Amino acid sequence: AFSSIAGGRENKIVYPDGDNTNSFNFIGGGSYNRISGSSFYASLLGAQASIIDNSFNSSIAGGRENKIEHSPYSLLGGGNENAIGSSDGRGSRSSVLLGGQFNIILGYPTGHGIDSIGNFLGGGQVNQLIASSYAFIGGGGSGSLIGKSDYSAIVGGLSNEISSSEYSAIL
Questions:
Q1: Which one, out of 17, 28, 30, 36, has a CA that is 20 to 30 A from the CA of 146?
Q2: CA dist 62 to 11, 38, 43, 151, Å?
Q3: With contact defined as beta carbons under 8 Å apart, do 107 and 92 qualify?
Q4: In angstroms, how far is the first alpha carbon of the chain from the final one?
């Protein structure tokens, strides 16, 4: 309810059956985009085949085949086939992913009772930030910040990894 689509082609705001938990959303232009699940105040602007699902107060601006799933208060800015969260509930609250391609920010596996939060991935290609909070990957390629590497950073480069190590950095 109270949602709108302005322009574009084959964009959808999908409401769960008999439920108003998907309200106040906006799709502006683009094609084949979808906002679904419990997504209040979400926006999808000028993208192609992108999805926001179960992610309130989240936005995707531009790009192709990008997704925000189970990740409220998050922003995905362009790029190609990037994702914050996953359909199996591995979300990351208040996270930002800006451009690049094949990059992903994922939370903890379902059932651990906590989300990851406050992550930033600046672009590049095939970077992954998984099960960590307040972590940073600036760019580069094939970088990995995984397994409770909270407050850690990879500034850039190729094939760098921080695993299960808090307060660490690769500059």
A1: 36
A2: 14, 22, 11, 29
A3: yes
A4: 47
* C-alpha distance from residue 35 to each of 46, 102, 104, 169 (Å): 13, 21, 19, 36
Reported as a single tens digit per residue, the pLDDT across 103-158 is: 999 998 766 656 789 999 999 999 999 999 999 999 999 999 999 999 999 999 99
What token pair was written down for 135?
């972590």
Tokens of 133: 């909070």
CA–CA gap between residue 24 and residue 63 (Å, rounded): 22
Q: What is the pLDDT of residue 73?
A: 97
Q: Are residues 121 and 143 in contact, defined by beta-carbon separation less than 8 angstroms?
A: no
Tokens representing 91?
Answer: 């979300």
Question: Nearest-CA neighbor of 106 among 137, 55, 69?
Answer: 69
For 25-40, what is each residue's pLDDT tens digit? 999 999 999 999 989 9
How is residue 144 written in tokens?
Answer: 């990995």
Q: Which of the given ranges, 13-17, 60-64, 114-118, has the highest pLDDT on average?
A: 60-64
C-alpha 141/C-alpha 36 separation (Å) is 31
